[in-house]
From TrEMBL, chain A:
SUPFAM superfamilies: SpoIIaa-like (SSF52091). This is Anti-sigma factor antagonist. PROSITE patterns: STAS (PS50801). It comes from Pseudomonas songnenensis. Residues 15-113 form the STAS domain. Transmembrane segments: none annotated. It comes from the Bacteria.
From TrEMBL, chain B:
Residues 4-120 form the Response regulatory domain. PROSITE patterns: RESPONSE_REGULATORY. It comes from Pseudomonas songnenensis. Keywords: Phosphoprotein. SUPFAM superfamilies: CheY-like. SMART domains: REC. The modification 4-aspartylphosphate is found at residue 53. The lineage of its organism: Bacteria, Pseudomonadati, Pseudomonadota, Gammaproteobacteria, Pseudomonadales. Coiled coil: none annotated. GO terms for biological process: phosphorelay signal transduction system. This is Response regulator.
UniProtKB/TrEMBL annotation, chain C:
It catalyses: ATP + protein L-histidine = ADP + protein N-phospho-L-histidine. InterPro entries: Bact_Chemotaxis_CheA, CheA-like_dim, CheA-like_homodim_sf, CheW-like_dom_sf, CheW-lke_dom, HATPase_C_sf, HATPase_dom, His_kinase_dom. This is Chemotaxis protein CheA. It comes from Pseudomonas songnenensis. Keywords: ATP-binding, Chemotaxis, Kinase, Nucleotide-binding, Phosphoprotein, Transferase, Two-component regulatory system. CDD domains: HATPase_CheA-like (cd16916), HPT (cd00088). Residues 342-583 form the Histidine kinase domain. Residues 722-748 are annotated as: Disordered.
């Protein structure tokens, strides 16, 4: 079960992801994220993973694609407060850069060569 | 972290061996005696891996794979087939149905544990 | 290589060892029951299991290896204080030892197989592993000794990129949909070692709106520090091989190891792919894949090596090393280093049988020719060809290098020269010359005689040497080489040579020659080989040689060999021994006198000439003119006092031995044949001029001529009556031992 809750914060827009983000949920999650981003997303977006029970490679790939999507319209994405299981997977894939809070866009370009 | 694994085999001793090996490694095991029985266990609970025999009464392994793949809640669950040398012909059929991981019986417990790690680790 | 018997012996000793280890371990355990903190006992216990695991691994007793591994890793935790030795654990360990004993009992002493009671076994393992949470690490990664920062993300301190494997992984879109989570494989991979670096390749990943979230767009470049080999790494990806492109490149450091491994592979002629697989640089799966790629390119077949490099399966250095290996193997195939020890009598049996085979094959060929069936003749010829090859191969089995025998003389020379206060250096040449083992064995004694004599009597004391303008250090040389189908062994010293005058005096004194006898220096020197020439009491009187020289002579004679002396006053003396390569079979040249057949060793035949009239006038010995030079001749019929056949045409066979040449007058020439030497019975041992006998394919007996002895005989006769010299001009019909017609007809 995947849910997405949108909160406004002083730094930009915060999306709280909860439940599971796995191969079973990625299709719905993609639609939810696209809906949240709207036509021309801008500014800084934070994905709060603190309530994410489960994350797999398909889910992580989705987060990367979301980052790409935002970059198309010069918006930035940052992953924050990962739950233990989300952190484990992101570290396994060496995607710590996604939730680096220093330099909002720095994370994206490391893998984009 | 322990996984929940469904083991489907009509041989009690084989189920026993697999169960002992898996529980010894800290996994939870659900047993089913054949394909039809296995489908009754797919009732919403999280299953990380299905380990299934090929040749079973009621619903055989291939039929089970097809049913699992058609079930939206379980269609991405990795399935590991246990087969004997003589059933190699079934392998192509099973792979076409969606079972991509195969272990040939007899196997070492270590082999089974490795497969669990690779598929659901 | 081990034979079955050695293997079962090893296995038996392992079983014994395993029981001992289990018993030791049990004693330690009981000790620990009293004092659970006894470190020595814990260490001993751990060591016992560790040893057992290691030995079991040697015999591929996987269940035992697995089981002892569990015991071992549990004990390791106890040793490191991470696990308390509770009564429950002690009990479990005792039960584990019982299981070890039971398993050892279950080992099949013949097949070496171990079938265990899987259910009970698994239960115990489960019980053991519940005490040990390191159990999920596969066997191959226990005690990773290159990386200490196991499982951590940052680069570890103890290793670097040089020591890391590089794994390049490209995932196919369907992989996720098929239920595979690449993360699981990564987690499993990280159990093999430390993932130093992981670069997620997401170039192909579209933006969120364009992507199919259930498809995979990722790839990975991974640096892995591990002690595992290529096949083990590949095995991690076994289930997803169909859903990814996988390249595994060895670390630079390991590449050197692989190259060394390739170099050290046993030298068998293998295909390049096999060499790479054997070294571990290429896996079976990759080889299959590369071979398929190679086959698919049927228009322009490329070498496998270039396919492998192009596909990134093997670095170019690896392919080059394998090619070099293949090359050296092909070159060195004949000088294979690995050896098998075989009882000499087995070889003798084989050679004996091959000998019989040679005869029966010749018999079959003879029958075929009599019958005139062309197909049959052709078959027997093929059979004979193979028999000949077998014969050669069988004889080679007996050939060993003379070097070992030569090397023994270092000690003899050192001891004897020290005894005599002389400074002598031994030089060895031709140590790799091969000789029949039987010959070498029987050569040791005569060689020892010659070497001792050279040191004792040949080489002067240092002061005499210096006075004679030589180096103070004497030189003794042992040499072996091939010369016209024979082996020549030389024992040479740089002493003062034989004293001909003294030998002559002594020979006269012993009544061996007449005081007035007109003998050349060489003939005088040969007298030292005469029986009764020397006795022990005058060893030191004699400045020449002579101690037991008759013994040397008879030993060499028994080997169908000859010995000659090359002595130069003041410069030194060389004893030259000529020996046949083997004792069992010779290439012969068949001739006949009337109805009697004789075989002459082919190596000694120089040419065949036709003799138009009996130019020796019925005499047994004489001279003929061979292209202007006198050729001593011997009429075999007269020499052996055979009934003269009324033959119109007779032939001369020119034979040579050493530097001597002579003609043998015979009736018919029959050509070459291979023949097995049958020793003469005791009764005929004294026969002069006959060295042995053989049985022809027709069943007839042929006598093998002992050319050296005939030469000696001829020598005494023609020397004594040089007036007998008759000259005539034989017509040359064939030159060289490989003469064509009529010499090359078959041996009938």
């Amino acid at each position: 079960m995947f849910t997405l809750e949108q909160q406004a914060s002083e730094a930009g827009t915060r999306l709280v992801l909860s439940g599971s983000l796995t191969i079973y949920e990625v299709r719905d999650a993609r639609d939810a994220l696209l809906g949240a981003f709207g036509g021309q997303p801008s500014g800084h977006w934070q994905l709060d993973l603190s309530a994410l029970d489960e994350l797999d490679t398909a889910g992580a790939q989705l987060l990367l694609a979301a980052q790409r999507q935002l970059r198309l319209s010069d918006a930035t994405l940052e992953v924050c407060n990962p739950s233990a299981s989300a952190l484990e997977l992101l570290q396994l894939l060496h995607l710590q850069g996604l939730f680096s809070s220093q330099g909002p866009a720095a994370s994206g370009d490391r893998h984009a060569q | 972290m322990g996984k929940t694994i469904l083991i489907v085999d009509d041989s009690q001793s084989m189920r026993q061996l697999v169960k002992m090996t898996l529980t010894g490694a800290g996994h939870q095991v659900i047993e089913a005696v054949d394909g039809r029985d296995a489908l009754t266990k797919l009732t919403g609970q999280k299953i990380n891996l299905i380990i299934s025999d090929v040749n079973m009464p009621n619903l055989d392994g291939i039929g089970l794979v097809k049913a699992v793949k058609a079930n939206p809640a379980y269609r991405f669950t990795p399935i590991c087939m246990l087969t004997t040398e003589s059933e190699q012909g079934k392998k192509a059929e099973g792979q076409a149905a969606g079972a991509k991981a195969w272990i040939v019986k007899p196997f070492q417990p270590q082999q089974l544990l490795s497969a669990v790690e690779k598929l659901a680790g | 290589m081990l034979n079955d018997q050695q293997w079962s012996q090893l296995l038996l000793s392992f079983v014994e060892e395993a029981h001992d280890l289990a018993k030791q371990a049990e004693e330690y355990l009981l000790q620990l029951e009293q004092t659970p903190t006894d470190e020595d006992a814990i260490n001993g216990l751990f060591r016992a299991m560790h040893t057992l695991k290691g030995s079991a691994g040697l015999f591929s007793l996987t269940p035992l290896v697995n089981f002892t591994h569990h015991l071992e890793s549990l004990l390791m935790k106890v040793r490191e204080g991470q696990q308390a030795l509770t009564p429950v654990l002690l009990d479990l360990l005792l039960r584990g030892l019982d299981e070890v004993n039971a398993m050892v009992e279950l080992i099949d002493a013949d097949s070496g197989e171990l079938v265990v009671d899987e259910a009970r076994h698994a239960g115990l393992i489960a019980a053991l592993t519940s005490h040990d949470d390191s159990h999920l690490i596969p066997l191959t990664t226990i005690e990773p000794d290159t990386c200490k920062s196991f499982g951590r993300l940052d680069k570890c301190a103890s290793c670097d990129q040089e020591a890391a494997w590089h794994i390049s992984l490209r995932l196919q879109p369907e992989i996720l949909g098929n239920g595979f989570d690449p993360a699981s494989f990564l987690r499993y991979l990280s159990r093999l070692g430390d993932i130093l670096q992981l670069e997620l390749i997401d170039d192909a990943l579209p933006a969120l709106a364009e992507m199919d979230p259930e498809s995979c767009y990722l790839g990975m470049e991974i640096d892995l520090c591990t002690t595992a080999g290529k096949a083990e790494i590949e095995d991690v990806f076994e289930f997803i091989r169909d859903f990814c492109t996988l390249r595994i490149l060895p670390p630079n450091a390991a590449l050197d190891d692989y190259l060394r491994l390739i170099h050290e592979l046993p030298e068998t002629d293998q295909k390049i792919g096999r060499i790479l697989v054997a070294s571990g640089l290429l896996t079976e799966l990759e080889l299959d894949q590369a071979l398929r790629l190679q086959a698919a390119d049927a228009q322009q077949p490329r070498p496998l090596g270039s396919v492998l490099v192009e596909q990134g399966m093997v670095p170019a250095q690896g392919v080059n090393a394998a090619l070099a290996k293949q090359q050296t193997v092909r070159e060195k195939r004949n000088q294979e280093n690995s050896q098998i020890r075989v009882a000499a009598h087995k070889l003798d049996e084989l050679i004996n049988l091959v000998g019989e085979l040679v005869i029966s094959a010749a018999g079959a060929q003879l029958r075929a020719q009599l019958k005139g069936d062309a197909a049959c003749i052709e078959s027997t010829q093929t059979v004979n060809l193979h028999v000949e090859q077998i014969r050669e191969a069988a004889l080679k089995l007996r050939m060993i290098e003379i070097g070992d025998t030569f090397n023994r003389f270092h000690r003899v020379v050192r001891d004897v020269s020290q005894q005599l206060g002389k400074d002598i250096r031994l030089e060895i040449q031709g140590a790799d010359t091969e000789l029949d083992k039987a010959v070498i064995d029987r050569l040791a004694d005569p060689l020892t005689h010659l070497v001792r004599n050279a040191i004792d009597h040949g080489i002067e004391p240092a002061d005499q040497r210096l006075a004679a303008g030589k180096s103070a250090e004497g030189h003794l040389r042992l040499d072996a080489y091939h010369e016209s189908g024979m082996i020549v062994i030389e024992v040479a010293d740089d002493g003062h040579g034989l004293n001909t005058r003294r030998i002559r005096e002594k020979a006269v004194a012993r009544g061996l020659i007449d005081a007035q006898a007109n003998l050349s220096d060489h003939d005088v020197q040969m007298l030292i080989f005469a029986a009764g020439f020397s006795t022990a009491d005058n060893v030191s009187d004699l400045s020449g040689r002579g101690v037991g020289m008759d013994v040397v002579r008879s030993a060499i004679d028994a080997l169908r060999g000859t010995i000659e002396i090359d002595s130069r006053p003041g410069e030194g003396c060389t004893f030259r021994i000529r020996l046949p390569l083997t004792l069992a079979i010779i290439d012969g040249f068949l001739i006949s006198l009337g109805d009697d057949y004789f075989v002459i060793p082919l190596d000694m035949v120089t040419e065949c000439l036709e003799l138009e009239a009996d130019q020796l006038d019925g005499a047994a010995y004489g001279y003929l003119d061979l292209r202007g030079r006198p050729l001593p001749c011997l009429s075999l019929a007269a020499h052996f006092k055979l009934r003269e056949a009324p033959s119109k045409r007779r032939n001369i066979i020119v034979v040579s031995h050493g530097r001597q040449q002579a003609g043998l007058i015979v009736d018919h020439l029959h050509g070459e044949l291979q023949t097995v030497i049958k020793p003469l019975g005791q009764l005929f041992q004294h026969l002069q001029g006959i060295g042995g006998s053989t049985i022809l394919g027709s069943g007839q007996v042929a006598l093998i001529l002992d050319i050296p002895s005939l030469f000696r005989h001829l020598h005494t006769h023609v020397e004594a009556s040089p007036a007998d010299l008759r000259t005539s001009q034989p017509r040359q019909i064939a030159a060289g031992q490989q003469g064509e017609t009529p010499c090359n007809s078959s041996a009938t």
